[in-house]
Amino acid sequence: MENQQQQSPTPAKSIFERFSSSVAKATGSSAAFLLALATVLIWAVTGPFFGYSENWQLIINTGTTIITFLMVFLIQKAQNKESMSVQLKLNELIAATKGASNRLVSVENLTEEELAVLQQHYQTMAEITQKASDLRQSHSVEEAIKDAAEKLEDEAETGHLL
């Protein structure tokens, strides 16, 4: 009999994790929009019956404020999870792609100033490669820079500068 490795079970999601995922999914649906629209329409139609009183206005103001306040946190949680998932997928693609620069794995942890420096570095490299090489033939920015440098050296040797 072969020795089979048992995989550890997926950790159980917390109650809040399941709740927030369910609410985020539900509130992003067409049905949720239609329910919200119906609520506003019913509220507007009941205005004359309540004489457009302050209490009538307070109901919609309080309800929407509370819902908006809570939804901000749910939306942020969903966005954080989605962003982390995308970053992990991109990191996997970088790690699995031959010739890709692994320096960009976890780039999301850099400061804004460091990102600006890195962006300027890649912008400069892109400008060099556009002038000196065919971008469609390179597999990485580093390879394109190398090709561009070689082409510039060849042109310098033959006296045909750009």
Topology:
Elements: H1 15-27, H2 30-45, H3 54-96, H4 112-132, H5 141-158
Helix pairs in contact: 1-3, 4-5
How would you portray this structure in words?
The structure is a single chain. With 162 residues, this protein is mainly alpha-helical. It is 69% helix and 0% strand. It is built from five helices and no strands. Helix 4 packs across helix 5. Residues 1-9 have low confidence and may be disordered.
For the biggest sheet, the summary is: none
Record field, number of beta strands: 0
The overall pLDDT, averaged over residues, is: 82
**Overall geometry:** elongated
Q: Give the H and E element order.
A: HHHHH
Q: What structural category arises from helix and sheet content?
A: mainly alpha
Helix content: 55-70%
Query: How many angstroms does the end-to-end distance come to?
Result: 70 Å
Radius of gyration: 28 Å
Pick out the low-confidence regions. Answer: 1-9
* Secondary structure tally, helices: 5
Give the amount of beta strand, in percent.
Answer: under 5%
